[in-house]
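Obj: model holo form, ligand = zinc ion.
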Amino acid sequence: MDLKTLYRTVIMDNYKNPKNKGLQRTNDFHFVHLNNPSCGDDMNVEILVSDGLLQQIHHDGHGCSICCSSASVMSETLKGKTISEAKEIIQDFYNMVKGEDPKDEEALGEALAYIGVRDFPARIKCATLSWKAVEQAISEVEDEGNKK
Ligand code: ZN
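Output (holo structure tokens):
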């Protein structure tokens, strides 16, 4: 199997069988909603942070296969990571889809499947929507922590 086929398989598998899909919306979770009007993608993400770790990441929404599959891959990639690890991976993902070489391919894991998005600039927002949502959720959790 060549790399392009492998990456397409990762995207389709996560689109058809998304992991960590479905929200709990309890007070333990921090919730963020974002949308991407240019494609019609609509994404909800919630995170549970404790002991400085992203213990749980859930997503729910609708949109194109790139957006929905990317939310599944994002949740699997970042789950269990520390806040600072997660921020680095998120930044690496943004840089990768914009055309830079990823710094840490191992940390990105299945998220490497979205490297081809760099050739379709209109789809970059689709691929990054759930990552923007989790990034915002992390920074809001950090802000709350600083207030305490
Ligand atoms: Zn889309």
